Amino acid sequence: MLLLISAYLPVAILIYLMTKKHSVAASKALPLSALIAYLVVLFVFDFELRLVNASVISGLLLALTPIMIIAGAIFLFRCMEVTGALGIIRSWLNRISSNSIAQLMVVGWAFAFLIEGASGFGTPAAIAAPILVGLGFPALRVAIACLVFNTIPVTFGAVGTPIWFGLALTELTPVLLQDVAWKSALINSVAAPFIVMAALALVVEKKIQLKQNWLFIVLSTFSCTLPYLMLSQVSVEFPSLVGGFIGLIITLLLAKYNIGLHQRQNDRHCSVQIPVQVSMPILLKASFPLWGTILLLVVTRIPELGIKNLLQLTSPAWGISAGPLGDVSISASLVVKLERILQTPISWQHNTLYVPSILPFVVLGCLTLWLFKSSSFANVVSHTKNSMKKPVIALFGALVFVNMMMLTEEYSAVSLIGRHLAGISGQYWGFFAPFLGALGSFFSGSATISNLTFAGVQQTIASDLQLNVTTILALQSVGAAMGNMICINNIVAVTSILALQNSEGYILKRSILVLLLYGLIAGTMGMVLA
Predict the structure, then answer these.
(1) pLDDT tens for each residue of 359-402
(2) Which of 66, 223, 362, 485 would you label with 121, given CA atoms 20 to 30 Å apart?
(3) Residues 503, 179: Cα–Cα separation, whole Å
């Protein structure tokens, strides 16, 4: 009982600090929760001091991944601001449609759906949110909406990684794995209209706009999810990528020709001047950072093109011993490793060129400055540096907290919580299974890691309770995706990119309400299918 209470303690404290009336900033709440988790695993779980400290070092190093992604995204969008590219895109989108619902669905839903299918890593919110703020939407509402939007496509993530890699330890046959993929897509497709509507309700000031534009919302939603559902029957790699691409084209056409949109234009979300005509060459130049990002992400994520393997070469080209700290090595593709940290089995690896930061954000940002003949490089770097001060502290705390809670995997605090919840629910586990997946994403910030951590637990529970295994694993995958909206890493990332101060708790409280709706829909379907 003491172990179980101790496992819940750091989580309860973190949620309390971030959701109480006068919430504590993530830059303070996360390091404090990490300290409590450290003391719990050391003195209650009685893990070896060297193992715990090695996990702390690993957590601090793992934080470099989200830090670099956030910094890269801030750098890219600052380049777009100073060159005027963002203003041109804003004007073009206003020419397509000045309807706020249309703009939210084009950028926040369909475009982000495509980006998730190409990249993952929380990139969709990082790219879509600044564009929407540039269009005049309130930053705090945009942050919440983008987190909610970026859930449905996350089940398949970057070319199917959460499925084919995240469920690898379950050793399912290809036929059973495809069944998991299809059931996951089916559950998400049923939930999608409700989740999209909830995301829009969080942004628009006049809720009557949802009623007036309901047909457009439904058509745009299904333009992504129907291809996504159909592809899930034959592929686990491309449902989100292809579904997003098809959905973006259809949504743009729907918006351009006012199909399903309310005709009145005086319900704008902000006061905007009548947009000027933007020629195609100017638009291509201004949107280069966006389509260039998609292009680079696609060519570096599809294994058949060969570039992905090159960027992930791990064979050391140079290595050195760092004494008791471990062994450091760097590969030809700049994959940095620290192995045997403090002489333990714990290791760390950072794929410098594969993580979406230098490629594509920094490279395309620099090319954008060159393309527009801008001399604002120093300004962009200074802005990025100043924007990263608080997020760095928060993310160091977040990743140490995650590592403490997931230390030793099978005997970790998170696994203990998962088994406890499963024991309480019994035969009703089909309803609660998505919430375990969401718990994994809340901690780890990754649907893939949630699946790696809990797929085996879910499989065992399904077998013990004689529930359909592929259905339970589908619910795990759906839950891992829906947990993306409450993941601390993602919340810190989007607030940092939008320069929002001390708003993480507010965002978490609003997002949890949508997560409960999502979980209710998924759990109900789970009870039927299981």
Answers:
(1) 888 999 999 999 999 999 999 999 999 888 878 888 898 889 88
(2) 223
(3) 40
pLDDT in tens, 224-249: 999 999 999 988 888 998 899 999 99
- The pair of structure tokens assigned to 417 is 């919580």
Helix (H, G, I), strand (E, B) or coil at 280: helix
The whole-angstrom separation of Cα 222 and Cα 230 is: 12
pLDDT of 109 over the 80 cut: yes
Q: How far apart are CA 142 and CA 210, in angstroms?
A: 16
Residue 23 DSSP symbol: P
The C-alpha atoms of residue 523 and residue 119 are separated, in whole angstroms, by 28
| Strand arrangement of the beta sheet that strand 348-351 belongs to | 316-321, 327-331, 335-339, 348-351
Per-position DSSP letters for 254-276, written without gaps between them: HHHTTTT--S--TT-SS--PPPP
Instruction: Give a three-class secondary structure readout of 439-494.
Output: HHHHHHCCHHHHHHHHHHHHHHHHHHCCCCHHHHHHHHHHHHHHHHHCCHHHHHHH
Residue type, 176: L
pLDDT-derived band at 93 (thresholds 50, 70, 90) equals confident
Q: Using alpha carbons, list the distances in angstroms from residue 58 to 24, 122, 294, 314, 335.
A: 26, 21, 31, 18, 16
As given in the structure block, the two tokens for residue 158 are 């970057």
Is residue 435 within 8 Å of residue 478, measured between CB atoms?
Answer: no
Distance CA(332)–CA(530), nearest Å, equals 48
Report the pLDDT value the prediction gives residue 272, as an integer from 0 to 100: 45
Token digits for 362?
A: 């920094």
User: Residue 197: is it exposed, middle or buried by C-beta count within 10 angstroms (0-12/13-18/19+)?
Assistant: middle
Q: Band of the pLDDT at 425, cuts 50, 70, 90?
A: confident
What DSSP designation does 46 have? -
- State the DSSP code for 281: H
Quick check: 459 pLDDT over 90? no
pTM, two decimal places? 0.81
Find tokens 């101790």 and name the residue. 6
Going by pLDDT thresholds of 50, 70 and 90, the confidence category of residue 276 is low
Q: What are phi and psi of 262, to 5 degrees?
A: -70, 135
Secondary structure of residue 317 in the 3-state scheme: strand
Residue 69 CA to residue 355 CA, distance in Å, equals 7
